Amino acid sequence: MARSGANTSGTTLEPEVAKTKLTKESFRQGLRIFRYVLPYRAKFSIGLLMLALSSSTFMVFPWVIGKLVDAANGKAIALPNGTVVSISQIALGLFGVILFQGIFSFGRIWFFTQVSEFTVRDIRQSLYAKFVSLPIPYFEKTRVGAITSRITSDVAQIQDTFSLTLAELFRQVTTLIVGVVAIMVVSVKLSLFMLATFPPIVLLAMFFGRKIRVLAKATQDELAKTNVIVEETLQGINTVKAFTNEQFETRRYTASLTNTVQAALKSNMYRGAFVSFVIIGLFGGIILVLWRAASLASLGQLSIGDLTSFALYTIFIGASVGGLGELYGKVQSTLGASERILEILDEPSEPTHRPRVAGTAPLQVRGDIEYRNVAFSYPTRPDLPVLKNIDFDIQSGEKIALVGPSGAGKSTIVQLLMQFYELSGGKILIDGRDIQLFDLTELRRHIGIVPQETLLFGGSIRENIAYGKTDATDAEITLAARKANAWQFISSFPEGLDTLVGERGVKLSGGQRQRVAIARAILKNPAILILDEATSALDSESEKLVQEAMDELMQNRTSIIIAHRLSTIRKVDKILVIDGGQIVEQGTHDELSNAENGLYANLLKLQFELR
Ligand SMILES: Nc1ncnc2c1ncn2[C@@H]1O[C@H](COP(=O)(O)OP(=O)(O)OP(=O)(O)O)[C@@H](O)[C@H]1O
């Protein structure tokens, strides 16, 4: 029952899978996960049939054994039609039973495995598709750890159910029912005696089991606390050392470990008591029943064969009742897991990838942008206005720059253009049309972004550039790389475009990564371009290459540059100076740099002095 146990090494502890109380509602909810089994219902039914057959042949076993024992004692064993069978024939029959049992078991495992593997694949796929289609705010309020644990441990829990728990449950229930009927047939007197002895013992065992589960959970919680200490201190090891708190932290960890050990000892004391209770209580019960059976047999009211059958059935029944307790816990965990999975699947997705109305042409975007009194607060901090009254226009093909102190709201302005968040007020229009009226996927297809920190995926340079257009040909990729000033370094690598970039692109320098990102954007060929300038300066040679690539990229596109180094934006058509979520100045570089006491003029002076 509490087999998952409460050790302190954490190795056998179940993941943080909370259990759900078995109520009608939770059961109904949990059953919704079964819609994923529907496509495989034929296989599932065959599996169920195999299971029924293997469970029932298994239950024939004690019966035939009993007959064998009786035959050994010289009793004539006859079939229902009156034919007397020999010991060898009974043994052969027994062999037949086992053979069927073996074949059915194989079939059950084979079919159920297929159902569980395919079902779990479908659930994982739906979950993943759901995750990537959820809006950005979802990821700001949910920890990545929680998301991955949904797709790994919760799904694994369900897989376990489809492949094992369900079969076990079915088998135990069959064993229980058939077992009770069988012992009744063997001897009503003895069965009644047994049924009076066993249920109280089983109830006690279940109570015990629950207590142990609670204690095991407490141990897990304590263990989790010790892990938090390790994680925290190792992540902040610099701080620990700087404050010379190594001994303090070690003491804190030791104290926490001691608590864990105490909790584990307590839970294991109960577990030990439980085991001895099972030995004494359950087996004591069996002895009691056997004693009664032996007495009946000695009086000639029960044959030795029936006694054997009875004893075997009793053991089966006992085992199945014990097993049911454990299965009850598993069913609870599964219901919890499926509830959490369904909760995510029920989250509303972003309205992306809507099928285009038949006959309409693909969306064309010129690239006129208008922000009309845009106001915004992040959903995680609704009370803090980040943008207020942002109002500006960009004509198609124009270049504008957003400048301002850190935290002013520059990145937020462009994120709203991508519709990562909903506006709190105002409107954004592209080509004179409210962006909410566009299909998100179609719209985003026309917006390119070169982010501040380029994130490359762990594959080759080719794959990373082709991320801008997944069906690009080699010629297109090479051309984009040339335009992005990236070809020179790519061709210097022995493996060229097939060079692996390492996790997150660590094998490339910062400037190289940026140029890969630019090549990506060139390949995407968007009408609107967002350039988030890197804050970390590159060396001047690299800087020049990146700048040239950016200039190439910006040609004939509406471009918004988030500028950190003011030297790069002298040529833009308009500069918007943002401060505290508002536009505080706007104009060309010449206009703004001559404004007395203007924020831009001051920023310019500051950068000049820093140099
Ligand atoms: N995801 C978020 N959730 C909540 N608040 C956020 C989020 N992102 C940014 N903010 C807050 O919004 C404000 C504007 O941030 P934003 O990133 O737009 O500034 P920025 O001008 O681009 O700054 P920087 O130049 O440092 O990149 C900041 O006060 C920031 O703390």
From TrEMBL:
InterPro entries: AAA+_ATPase, ABC1_TM_dom, ABC1_TM_sf, ABC_transporter-like_ATP-bd, ABC_transporter-like_CS, P-loop_NTPase, Type_1_exporter. One of its GO terms (molecular function) is ABC-type oligopeptide transporter activity. It comes from the Bacteria. Its main location: membrane. CDD domains: ABC_6TM_bac_exporter_ABCB8_10_like, ABC_MTABC3_MDL1_MDL2. It is a multi-pass membrane protein. GO terms for cellular component: plasma membrane. Residues 369-605 form the ABC transporter domain. SUPFAM superfamilies: ABC transporter transmembrane region, P-loop containing nucleoside triphosphate hydrolases. This is ATP-binding cassette domain-containing protein.
